[in-house]
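User: My instructor asked us to take a sequence, write out its structure as tokens, and then describe one feature of it. I'm not sure where to start. Here is the sequence I was given:
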Amino acid sequence: MKTFSRFFLAVFLISLYYVGDPAAGRAAADQLEEFQQEQNKARQQAEINQARQREQLDQLQRDQQLQRSQQQLDQLKQQESLRSDGEQQQQQLNQTQQRLDQLKNEQQLNRLKTELEINRLQREQNPSRQKEQLRQLQIEQQMNLLKDQQNKLQLQQDLNRQLSPLGRPSR
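Assistant: Let's start with the prediction itself. The structure tokens for your sequence are:
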């Protein structure tokens, strides 16, 4: 509401100056346009910063989940090393470890891609293009988050199946 009243006041003053002095009216109009451009830039920068913060939070949550999965897998490996008849189980654990490592690598790659994209967005000069690209980045972030959740769920289910034969309750 405050911005609207400033805008209305600026338009009113411009119209007064324009009637009395056309050059002053143009100067006031230029100032108003510059003010609006600065507001747009500030708003777009805030949106970019929010996207970066969301991505960092999502990445932290992904890392924590992967760390929990890694701990469970390490625990399974340790238990299996104590058993002599676990060759097939050990092979499954190794495969699960490979999948977990692959997930970690994919997340690292996605993190770097997102950071590069955010840096590129900050250099974009066209505000409407920057806004569209930011929207696209947010969609990509959401898709990556859903994909990661699906992969982690599958990995957790595999870990739970591997825990069950060891006499441990599945979670």
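For the description part of your assignment, you could build on this observation: The radius of gyration is 27 Å. Try explaining in your own words what that tells you about the chain.
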